[in-house]
Amino acid sequence: MPKPEPVVQKLFKVLEEAKGLRKGLEKVKKVARKPKTAMLAKRLVEAKTFEDIRAARAALKGKLIPEGAEIMPTVTKFTEAEQAELIQTITKSPVLGKLVFTKRNTAEALGDLLQFGKIPTLGQRRNLIRVFGDEFAKIVPAEDIKAWQRFSDVLTEVINTPKTTMSMLDLSASLRQALTLATRHPIEAIRATFGAGAKSGLRQKWFEGIQESIINNRFAPAADAAGLDLTTMGHILKREEAYVSGWLQRLAKNWGTYTLPKKIITAPLWPVGQAARMSERAFIATLNKMRMDIFSRYAALWEGKAGEAELKAMAEVINICSGRGAVGRRLQPLVNLLNNVWFSPRLQISRVQYLGLPFTLWKYPPLVRRYVIGNIVAFYGTIAGTLSMIGLAAKQFGWKDVSIEEDPRSTDVGKIRIGDTRIDPWGGHQQYARLITRLISGEMKTAMGQIKEIDREEELVRFLRLKESPFIGLLHDIFKGESFLGEELTAEPENIQKQAFERTAPFFIRDMIDAIREDGLLGGMAASAGFFGVGVLSYPSATYANWLATIEKKIGRETTDEDMRKMRPDYNKAEASWLEYLELKTAKAREHYRENNPDIEASMYFWGELNTLSSPEAQEEF
Asked: Which of 67, 287, 367, 598 could pair covalently with 618 via S-S, beta carbons 3.0-4.6 A apart?
């Protein structure tokens, strides 16, 4: 943020001095309002006709403060030249770009504040902060926000903190959030990811420059009017869903201004906040760049052909394709509430809407309809083509560890399996197709290849539970006394540490650790795709999975990918004790070893490595 000009410094000083006067004016208004209210009440009691009711409003006419008394002396402290300079600071502000109506509204808000002491609305105040910096926010509080609104915002930030930490430390926006745009516009996706996202993550100055270039795009006013979603690091309602919580980022930004005791207390959180701040800048810049570049490309291409309806429809499609589902103003408050319950409600809504695009083509103008068809063909064609080539290559070169599941009832459908690591190139889109297939057929294919009937209601509930936000998921688990996977929740330090890691650690870090644990360096190389938004999941293979199949009846439900991943450490520990037996070359030596080590034999039988127990001692151990 550049150093404020002298007139801006004067503005801050004058506004600071006027705080008490504004409060005084409010008290005067409150006192003046009492006799008017009493007169209104009297006339309502005396009213005999509806004309009397309408006439009763006359009691409220007239100013609460004598003419001229409501004028704040703050405006008189500025010369005409200084007032002109303040106005030009707004009208020529690069952060407001070419948004003429926004500039006018912002300038009027400052004038009302200086002349009448009128506190700006939430949107006006946000724009004034963008123009004059954070110092304005400290001096002019958001007094138009009710106490319950402030409480709601604070609660939202606290509840969504784990969501922020889980989403950071990657460049996943283009290949997850905006995957359907990336497959149609790969060049724009690459430019947005590396030219905007990566640079913005490294430096705040570069982020501001990219945001400014987006605002100054010649089609920015048209995009704004059409409803194209361009997010910021500002108020909760304008942030990306993954970064709804922003207190960690603000802590990192303002840490240098803290007192020494406060610095010491918050020091452990500074690196987390800094990582979140960098990650959010990269996320926002990537998506905003893609949205505006693609919108402006077609706005220019259709210039003279497209009207307001076409541009509005195109903005809606781009929003859907970049994870900002179209919900409308009436449903927006509900979606904001769901943000505390689900991980990313608008992202999930966008996935459902994209799945339904072929059936809603009729509502779009012809120009946009052709674009939607091209986008759908590009998305499904690119992913299907990639999977087909990998499958053919695996057969051609004999890659036994590489396979692709084709059954739509399977959890692994459309995923590339390398050893025990699964790579999901669909960006979350196939989850809904799989759910619909299972609900229609009433069947699922397990990780062991078995076809089983399902309870449709349980399947739907389980799917929705998987979409819960980390905080709500924790409350749900505490209420039940066990995790989603059936693990008992205890107050033991080891269990608390495990739960904290699983509910706050970045997705990319968790996936990388799991992949290396399962498949070593090869798994780590496959998991590196997760940094750019490709889904990666690692869990054990056939022997281990076959053992899990034997306990399904006992736990009363189908084993899941997460079951296998969670129990793998115990399997690895047991497997380490079998190495001496597995290294024996002859059957006689192995038989002798089993006789002398019934505990090892029982362990191997328990985990499915052996099919029989050779002695009563081993049976007792089992």
From this structure: 598
